[in-house]
Amino acid sequence: MKISSLLKNKFTISFEFFPPKNDNGEAELFETIIKLEKIKPDFVSVTYGAGGSTREKTRQIVNKISKEKKLNVMAHIACAGHSRAEMHEMLDSYSQAGIDNILALRGDPPAGSGIVTGEGDFPHAEDLTAFIRDNYGDRFCIGAAVFPDKHPQSPDWDHEMKYFKSKVEKGTDFAITQLFFDNTSFYKLIEKAKKSNIEIPIIPGIWPITNLKQIQKIASMCNALIPATLIEKMEKFNDDQESVAEIGIEYAVSQCEDLISNGAAGLHFYTLNKSGASMRIYNSIKDKL
Predict the structure, then answer these.
(1) At residue 109, does pLDDT exceed 70?
(2) What are phi and psi of 120, to 5 degrees?
(3) What is the distance between the alpha carbons of residues 256 and 7, in angstroms, rounded to a whole number?
(4) What CA–CA distance (Å, rounded) separates 12 from 256?
(5) CA torsion sign, 277 to 279 to 284 to 288?
(6) Which of 180, 75, 183 is nearest to 128 (CA)?
(7) Is residue 84 very low, low, confident or very high in pLDDT (cuts 50, 70, 90)?
(8) Which domains does the chain have, with CATH numbers?
(9) In sequence order, what are the residues at sequence separation of 6 or more whose Cβ sits closer than 8 angstroms to the Cβ of residue 232?
């Protein structure tokens, strides 16, 4: 089912997975899915490796989830380094498999690949969005990524909103945010979008912190700001991962409760292929949904 249709009628809950590297990882992923499907998520998504490095594995996992688990699944596609012929083949395959939802991304090429972002058949995510609409009409519901703390390569918010609006004008139906840890950033993003006449639903992406060093590295790559007070609180328990995770989950619960009360379109959880944190957060907020 198209995510855009769901968002017209309800608050959505969704989970994001990444393609595992081996059979053991795949088995662990599907154990996670078995646990999370009890929540009856509105959709799940599967990420796409840099430069298409997981293209076939992403497609395999997307199709397996759709066929075996009967879940509504969204396929991520990053277009950097791909040709129009490759994109046709991939989208034809998803269409034939009954996949209705695509998250259209530019993506970043792997180091040393020779792929240059901003060049080739698809310089930007908006070019992939336009390609899907021009060639497949309304066959797919198209999502986009958006950054509450601004894309690392955006010089300013005017530039950020210009590209976001262009993606919408070329066919984007909804957006999911990159991770963020200060809800003020999300609300400011919503306000900037409104001022730019961007009216599509924007789903906040939630990443519960269970490992401080790991999230600090990831956050620095996507320009996500972690409140100093939260870092200080976690650093007191730096060698006690269980306590760090407890603080992170409690913080994510408070984030979600605030987002729900302020009219967010849904919640999209970055799971890292694990169920524990997402399940705990959901069980804490489900009475407020």
Answers:
(1) no
(2) 85, -165
(3) 17
(4) 12
(5) positive
(6) 75
(7) very high
(8) 3-288 (3.20.20.220)
(9) none
